[in-house]
Amino acid sequence: MRYPAFLRENGTIGFVAPSFGCATEPYKSGFLNAQKRWNEQGFHLQLGQNCYVEEGVGISNTPRKCGEELTAYYCDKNNDCLISCGGGELMCEILDYVDFEQIRQAPPKWYLGYSDNTNFTFLLTTLCDAASVYGPCAAAFGMEPLHPSLNDAMLLLQGKKLTMQGYDKWERESLKDEEHPYVPYNLTEICRTAGRMWRACGARRRSMPGRMRQVSHRCWRTGNAERRCYRRVRSSRRVKMSNSASRVGFSAAAWTAWSIFWAPAMIK
Q: pTM higher than 0.85 for the full model?
């Protein structure tokens, strides 16, 4: 596994929109406020051409333009890491236009994003042997005040915190909307296993046998890795692992998608 260099002091953060961008509220205001925060911290910013675009279906732009932007910015030496503008629905359609061979030949770079961005974080590891981070997208960093999980995400990108601890509560229903783009997580649910430690790098893999489950993205946003915040898929959609190959395939997919931030870890 190739691990990227960490974001250096006064380094450059690149932003891409291979899924949804930040063209609409509350994401636009959140992203702008996040940029202000990063500038105050001394970071330079490099915005991709699709960050404020809303011309695609389920993604920011056409699949070709999104794929080309992602390839170009990952291989660009002028930025030190990449943060996705947002999740979405149809990032899978850009994959034919992402040059994974070029990305594999480029020096590894941290890529941060969740939800639809699994289309890239998974393939970065399986095709390019490069670690990535399954974590918050750019607009989330604009909330006031900043939740500790978001601060931890930035500390991880900088290599200043490689062991993560769970948080006390998680969000079931968000209060963020067009008129309130900066509201913090609505932390109403108590985490039953908060406080367990998770090591970010070099941790042992954990098997994931059993039924397929669906991840609640809002839970991931609060960094509640320990409870995993699964929502069982309805019985009609439950898929039972029928053989060892299926178990291995699902375990690998789960490990890779979560990469090194929230859940590829070992409970101490």
A: no
